[in-house]
Automatic annotation (TrEMBL):
Gene3D superfamilies attached to this UniProt entry: 1.25.40.620, Gun4-like
Single GO molecular function: tetrapyrrole binding
Keyword Magnesium set for record: no
Record's keyword annotation contains Plastid: yes
SUPFAM superfamilies in the cross-refs: GUN4-like (SSF140869)
Chain ranges of the GUN4-like domain: 95-235
Keywords: Plastid
Database matches in InterPro entries: GUN4-like, GUN4-like_sf
Protein name: GUN4-like domain-containing protein
Organism for this UniProt entry: Lympha mucosa
Gene that produces this protein: ycf53
Pfam family, any one: GUN4
Amino acid sequence: MNILDKQCNELDILSQVLDDISIAAQLKLVQEIYDQSLNGKQKLLKKLIEHCSNYKYNVTCVDGFIFELLLNSHDFTILHGLNKYCNNGIVPLKSDCNIDYSTLQKLLINQEFQKADQLTQFKLCELSRTLGNHSRDWLYFTDVFEFPSIDLYTIDRLWNIYSRGLFGISIQRKVWLSSNLDWEKFWCKIGWKVNDNICRYPKDFKWDITAPSGHLPLLNQLRGVQVMSALLSHPVWTKAIHDL
């Protein structure tokens, strides 16, 4: 068995566990496989196509990283494979309210995080308007209680999968819980407050993957702590994946 095959086998073994340590190891290994040769890229493409073609499989941020690398490979055969099997991205766009998340997926694929952040806030307000039959372009925390789990799950997956697992509401929730629900600690951990100063929008925020874990999306811009607290406490985050 050559080095490349060993690396691919190791990746398969690591992928059976989705904790932070395993994901970090998988991301590192994917980069090594990608850097090997065209053969390495082809093996990653095959793995990605297998995952995306299996409706029972839930793609992960590792698949998102593979997709990101292959999309930037500039190799015709690789790009042809992506275009054939993953033309619109790798995240299924599910909504109980017929909300279209395709533009959000495109922005996140291209790592246009600031535009994606603005669109995320718009989509959450659109979701609220659809459910509440109102014309507001902001949220009340009570609106969040009515949000379908599948819509929040879709938005979160888009952010998480196309950021190498760095961003997303579920990541923010994890940081919030690790901060014992202390908002001041939370703001500092996710980089919304630096040296006791609240970051100013947009110049003080980081719009790339050098940002701290949970830095995006900027949900506090919606309407203060109550809305964010409602989002982080939504039942979706305690549901099993197969229930969504």
